[in-house]
Amino acid sequence: MFYKSIGISIFLFIIGSNVSSQNITLPRVMHVNIFEGLQVYSEPSINSNKIAVYVHGEWIEVFERSNRLETINGITNYWYQVRGIIDGRWHSRAWVFGGYLSEQLPEDVPAIIGFWNVENEDNYIFRFWANERYVEGINRSGAATFGNWSLNENNLNIINENRNILINIEIINRNEIILNYPDGNIKRLIRNFNRY
Fold it and tell me: Rounded to two decimals, what is the model's pTM?
């Protein structure tokens, strides 16, 4: 009887630890942390319609958590209602399995991925998606430039309808980078954790 109660206590501790680790404040920005990409569904079930796939490292906004835990591929977690852009299309209120989400940008993903504020330039933002698309401009104004980006060591290549520019990038850490433009202009970018 003694061993049975110890076994039950250990089991409950493990289950309790798993559940409590999933108690996160919502809404929240999280990252896809599965190399193959994260399947997006219309409902919190692998039997619902598949909408799209978020790429590894993508930054998505999480709004709601399902009521019950589910185990998929040996991982137990909740389903999360999310929104984000996939292949240029806005997906609002779709569902992903939480076992493949991370609060931190995965270490094998370029540090540039994410949403950035420009230091000392109120409301000017950059957003770099994992699929090598980007936007820069005045936040929530409609005044923005969209295009593509690529990174080769410390050189960031920005391509859009107005320009093709090679910018030297200094990665201070995963939450702060400096863009050194060819004309001498410097922009210090600070990662924005609060907004998508």
Answer: 0.69
